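debug: dumping io for the single-chain case to check the tokenizer round-trip. Nothing else runs in this session.
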Amino acid sequence: MSALPWVLAASAEITAAADDFGRVVHEVPAWVARPADAMQVAALARYAAAEGLAFRPRGCGHSVYGQAQADSGIVCYTGGLDQVYDISGGTLDAGAGTRWRAVLAAATRKGMTPPVLTDYLDLSVGGTLSAGGIGGASHHHGPQVDHILDLEVVTPSGEIIRCSPSSHPDVFFGVLAGNGKAGIITRATIPLVPAPTRVRRYKIPCPTAATLIACQRSAAQERRFSYLEGQIAADQNGRWSYVLEAGAFYTAEPPADAALLDGLSLTPGPAEIEDLDYLSFCDRMQDGVRLLAASGDWYRPHPWLSVFLPIDAAEQYVAGALDRLTPATAGPIPMLLYPLRRGEVPAPGLATPPGDDDGLFCTFSILRTVPDDRDAINAALDDNQRLATAAIEVGGTVYPISAVRSLAGQVAGTGNAMSSR
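debug: decoded output
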């Protein structure tokens, strides 16, 4: 293995591969690989299978519970598979290591965009498709995995297969949101839609979580907005505040605010409105990331939890979760609460609750930042386990990107584990 120039055993590489954005789990691999193509990935898979080694690809390292680590095994970085190969006929073909930032840049040069983007663009294509991939357009289009056209996959035995819903569908649907059990995504064909040039962004304060959910539900049912999310954070007095965040995409004429905000502009204050170009809107998290990096919070442990909830159970569940949390235990990153739908061809690997009559359910994410202290980390993991169990009890599911102890074994195997949200 070490004779191959793309397989490394340097201590710095090993140390980096034993960590991730979550900084909760630290599993030390025997080898780190940086393959340049699917053939090299396949050679690694065959070696790992023959030797009985854990084999995990790693995209941008944004997993939060060791999902892209391999104890005494092989961590396979997909950064060498970062090419946008082709854009034609309303589709884009990209390597698994390509960041969504690069996908968006290539697509918008052609006046197009992926229908669903993650909130943070510095995630890999292969990572989000192995997990699910959700964002503010998912109330229209569903998760990213629900509208992928075809894939190139390296199976756990080292076979390279091009697959789609009609060709090798068992492999195709096995790896989409498959949490690494059925193989490694090395290339994906993504559908594109016409890109807007501008976005009118609204931030609408809501007095309670119940109001936030009700307003989002109404807006999603009526399909008022192109983008729809919600945030929960502590205000200056330590009380929870609730904001509906929405975006209306346009190219020529801006939207009519009165019609879009009808019934949504509720106390405790008026809506904030701003106009952005489309690329700036899609990259809106960058300023927040810089602030978190400057404060050091970006580099502290992040035992995150994301659950999917029946929309009728969301109000009671969120109220119970907020009763357990304080601004100190939640950390500086706002919690997310917003509605989703599944796409026309839902990937079976992503477990979600049934939607209501309009197909809607909710995602709720507690994006914790805790001190780099084992007691604080364990307390957060204990709470995550309780909240995960409570979500299941009300008919919900747990998004497997989460730091939940009972999920740890579900990403084991010789295939790829999730590299990102």
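debug: round-trip ok. The chain has a mean pLDDT of 92.
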